């Protein structure tokens, strides 16, 4: 127990209400299960055992029960008492202990509750075991105790998804025993008193019968994972642990779970996923913005109601902002409203919004108009019109004329020079790039493109907006394509060069899917539409270096009307409207016409060679982006590729991957390839410096 004036207060408080002991976890901000808290929990249980209290309630202070492990301990050797020992100590207690949960009970927090004898949760409380998202499995009994409550099929789905469920969903599954009905403390004390009145003793989950084996469920899950979790280790380890729950008693099952947990701790995937976890949290922490106050954002305007503009408007509406969208005429405005209404309906289906909230948004928060004057009170206007400098500057001129002083102008351009756009206004200090990714209300990445005149409080406001929209925000400087699309052009260039040297689109795509990408570059091109790449090449034609290559076969596919999925053929054939592409001999024959007869020599690529070249091009260009100051830190690039371009999360991002495989070997390969193509494979000066210093990209993250 903490004494008044104690300079090192305990993270656990012990109190009494009659015969009920109240144990409160107070280790803000998320009550993380660090070593101090674990030790204090053991002491609190010992106090309860020695006390004359008849039952104990374990609850969390602040906004949640327990948010999980202490991230400061990630990657460090465990310090006693470890969490499995703490939970075993609670479960073995001779007097009943009730877990009373609110806010979140995640990871070790839920495992802690499963070690208690009874569980109550407040409405809306989120319960989850997200360890799979970090390349791990629950390592403190979650795979052994949960299926004893829910059955193995439900536990499989729950643990493998890593997605929390609400208390309302958990109750019928047997994860909790009661929903709270008033305040947390009052509900917990009432439940404890009910148990006392019924003379209920400890009811240990570990003493429940093993879950019934379900061979069909295991077989179905193994088949599913073979398709959805290729290359991943932890999902398959989770299945093994749950099989152990069916086959072993608790002691042996816990030992097997711990063995598998420690095995996963050593995998490169775990290191990559932990890196991705930290990147997502660190990327928006910019030292330059410390102390800078964001401008107020009460009203947002969007210009352009196509797919991107409607998605941006949807994202803002879902975050609670009133939105006024401007289109060129009534028909286009009505179409935009219909698109946004459909987006919101999809949010209702996904459980992100209630039907009543959707109706209120469409009635009260959204206006689709044709007059720019309707934006006179907007604090921020975002243009999402055709990717043309002339079109965008015309929109900015109209916005500049109607927006109030201090209102911000944002462009959603993917490539264009934000400095030039800002210079076309009377308020360049208020101009910023907000590069959303399509669909804007779903994709997590937001590139915040800072022009040379952008004011610091405008940058801070952009990051505050992105956070409120649930985006991963990355600061970028101004160049063609910013961070992501500039790097994309390089690794797509590497793929095109392999095409010229003998690889097929299907072989390249297959190799990259095996690496962990959801799709390869040619399947992605078919999905987006080959006309998009064609227009980009046309835009760059005047400034293209004559030493660069142009994928003429891609232009020819466009001229043949083969634009991808939307026309039924592109790089692949899509029979009868299918979204699954089939390799097309006509594509291979067309490409063959463009292959040179001489140097570089044709070769048969292995999948490993394809992966190596593709990723080396990504890393080399990323190093140039860092060298040029377009990205400030390697973690900014990892975040961009992870959250905007589908880089496999378990590899941690391209620069984390490069550090893990070795920069010296990558540079040697790049120099070897440069013998045949010195223009494309010119090594990045930063990469050369890091190799010379025997250093890593990670050393530049600060």
Report on this model:
There is one protein chain. With 702 residues, this protein is α/β, with parallel strands linked by helices. The chain has 3 domains: 12-265, 2-enoyl-CoA Hydratase, Chain A, domain 1, CATH 3.90.226; 297-476, NAD(P)-binding Rossmann-like Domain (Rossmann fold, 3-Layer(aba) Sandwich); 484-700, Orthogonal Bundle (N-(1-d-carboxylethyl)-l-norvaline Dehydrogenase, domain 2), CATH 1.10.1040.50. The chain has 28 helices and 19 strands. The strands form 4 sheets. It has an 8-stranded mixed beta sheet, with helices on both faces. Helix 2 (83-91) runs parallel beside helix 3 (108-115), helix 12 packs across helix 13 and helix 20 packs across helix 21.
Could you tell me the radius of gyration in angstroms? 28 Å
Q: Let me know the largest β-sheet.
A: 8 strands, mixed
Spatial strand order of the main sheet: 12-11-10-13-14-15-16-17
What is the count of distinct domains?
Answer: 3
The fold-level CATH name of the largest domain is 2-enoyl-CoA Hydratase, Chain A, domain 1
Distance between the termini: 39 Å
What's the CATH H-level homologous superfamily of the largest domain? 2-enoyl-CoA Hydratase, Chain A, domain 1
Beta fraction? 5-15%
* Total DSSP E strands: 19
What would you say the CATH architecture of the largest domain is?
Alpha-Beta Complex
> What is the general shape?
globular
The SS-based structural class is alpha/beta
Fraction of residues in helices? 40-55%
Question: Could you name the ranges where pLDDT drops below 50 across 5 or more consecutive residues?
Answer: 1-5
Number of H- or I-type helical stretches: 28
């Amino acid at each position: 127990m903490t004494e008044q004036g104690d300079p090192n207060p305990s993270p656990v408080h012990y109190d009494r209400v009659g015969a009920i002991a109240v144990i409160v976890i107070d280790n803000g901000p998320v009550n993380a299960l660090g070593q101090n808290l674990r030790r204090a929990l053991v002491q609190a249980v010992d106090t309860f055992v020695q006390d004359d209290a008849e039952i104990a309630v374990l609850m969390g202070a602040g906004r949640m029960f327990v948010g999980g492990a202490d991230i400061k301990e990630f990657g460090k050797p465990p310090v006693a008492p470890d969490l499995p020992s703490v939970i075993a100590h609670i479960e073995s207690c001779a007097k009943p202990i009730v877990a009373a949960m609110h806010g979140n009970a995640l990871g070790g927090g839920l495992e802690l509750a499963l070690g208690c004898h009874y569980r109550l949760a407040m409405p809306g409380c989120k319960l989850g075991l997200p360890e799979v998202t970090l390349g791990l499995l629950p390592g403190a009994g979650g795979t052994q105790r949960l299926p004893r409550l829910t059955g193995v099929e439900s536990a499989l789905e729950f643990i493998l998804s890593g997605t929390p469920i609400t208390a309302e969903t958990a109750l019928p599954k047997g994860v909790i025993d009661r929903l709270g009905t008033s305040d947390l403390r009052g509900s917990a004390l009432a439940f404890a008193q009910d148990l006392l009145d019924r003379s209920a003793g400890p009811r240990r989950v570990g003493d429940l019968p093993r879950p019934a084996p379900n061979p069909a469920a295991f077989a179905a899950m193994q088949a599913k994972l073979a398709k959805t979790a290729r290359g991943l280790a932890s999902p398959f380890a989770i299945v093994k642990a749950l099989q152990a729950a069916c086959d072993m008693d608790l002691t042996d099952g816990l030992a097997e779970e711990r063995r598998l947990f420690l095995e996963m701790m050593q995998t490169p995937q775990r290191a990559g996923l932990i890196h991705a976890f930290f990147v997502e949290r660190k990327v928006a922490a910019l030292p330059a913005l410390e102390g800078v106050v964001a401008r107020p954002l009460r009203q947002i305007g969007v210009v352009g109601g196509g797919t991107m503009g409607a998605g941006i408007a949807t994202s803002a509406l879902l975050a609670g902002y009133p939105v006024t969208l401007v289109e060129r005429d009534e028909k286009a405005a009505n179409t935009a409203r219909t698109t946004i209404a459909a987006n919101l309906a999809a949010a209702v289906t996904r459980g992100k919004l209630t039907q009543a909230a959707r109706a209120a948004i469409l009635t009260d928060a959204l206006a689709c108009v044709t007059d720019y004057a309707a934006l006179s009170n907007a604090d921020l206007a975002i243009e999402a019109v055709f990717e043309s400098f002339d079109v965008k500057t015309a929109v900015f001129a109209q916005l500049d004329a109607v927006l109030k002083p201090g209102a911000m102008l944002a462009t959603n351009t993917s490539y264009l020079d934000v400095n030039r756009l800002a210079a076309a206004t009377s308020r360049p200090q208020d101009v910023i790039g907000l590069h959303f990714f399509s669909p804007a209300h779903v994709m997590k990445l937001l590139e915040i493109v800072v022009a040379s005149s952008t004011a610091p409080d405008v940058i801070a406001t952009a990051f505050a907006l992105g956070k409120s929209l649930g985006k991963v925000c990355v600061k970028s400087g101004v160049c063609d394509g910013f961070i992501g699309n500039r790097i994309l052009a390089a690794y797509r260039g590497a793929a095109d060069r392999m095409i010229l040297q003998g690889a097929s689109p299907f072989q390249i795509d297959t190799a990259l899917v095996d690496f962990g990408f959801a799709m390869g570059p040619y399947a992605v091109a078919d999905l987006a539409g080959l006309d998009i790449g064609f227009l980009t090449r046309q835009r760059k034609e005047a400034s293209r270096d004559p030493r660069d290559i142009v994928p003429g076969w891609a232009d020819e596919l466009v001229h043949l009307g083969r634009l991808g999925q939307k026309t039924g053929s592109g790089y692949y054939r899509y029979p009868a409207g299918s979204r699954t592409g089939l390799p097309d001999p006509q594509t291979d024959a067309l490409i063959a016409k463009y292959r040179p007869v001489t140097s570089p020599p044709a070769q048969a690529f292995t999948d490993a060679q394809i992966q190596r070249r593709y990723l080396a091009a990504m890393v080399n260009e990323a190093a140039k982006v860092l060298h040029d100051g377009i990205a400030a830190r390697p973690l900014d690039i990892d975040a961009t590729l992870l959250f905007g371009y589908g880089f496999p999360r378990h590899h941690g991002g391209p620069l984390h991957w490069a550090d893990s495989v070795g920069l010296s070997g990558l540079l040697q390969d790049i120099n070897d390839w440069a013998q045949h193509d010195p223009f494309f494979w010119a090594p990045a000066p930063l990469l050369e410096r890091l190799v010379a210093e025997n250093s890593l990209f990670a050393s530049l993250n600060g």
